[in-house]
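Sample entry (252 residues):
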Amino acid sequence: MRKLIAGTCLLTTMAVVGHSQSFEVASVKINQSQGGEGNRQPPAVEPSPGNLTMRNVGMMQALIWAYKISPLQISNPQLIGSDRYDILAKANGPAKTDEMRVMLQALLAERFKLTLHRETKEMSAYALVEAKGGHKLKESEDADGPGVTPVTNKMALSAKKASLDLLTMFLSQPLRTPCIDMTGLKGKYDFELDVSAYVPMDKEKREGDPPPDPVYVLQQVLPKQLGLKLEARKLPVEMLVIDHIEKKPIEN
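Predicted structure, serialized as tokens:
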């Protein structure tokens, strides 16, 4: 009986916590600037304490931000439409960025009737580990930050108060293979990863030049700049499986 009461109390507590992890007010609309590529406003995700602004984002980008995963970890992306959305959401207080990720998960479930589950699949992947000599990361002193974001007009990533699972999320895309944080480092860090010396911007490319090999580039840059490296392995990778999603959201 005591175990039953304790279990019931735990479930009640979890339900209260889950309920509190939601935005106080939110606006979700289909973005209307969907003309040609040249006329479309660029996607933008702008978190600030207690506020989340997402403009012209596709559902894939919203899921990536909410769940901190790469597109390669969504098993059935064909269920996601091509519409883009504007999401303006406000928390009841100065919520941190990672708290708002959880709130966005709840908002997607509410407005898009999103349901999903997780599965683990063994596959070829890259493990992010410490390089010889250890990492060169600086633990962040800030109370909060946006995580990892691309740097404008530069082939680089900037990190503010970022956990390393956010870095692997970005690394997975050029590698075209899941990348898993296996450093064991649990802190949040400020750093910049700059590959400009190896990857020219579009305007600097010469016709006929082969594209740079992302594995080679990252194996050169990661140890020098961050004290990290990639190892190719067979790894269990957590996947998100979408069970149901509505393409048209329930608006305000």
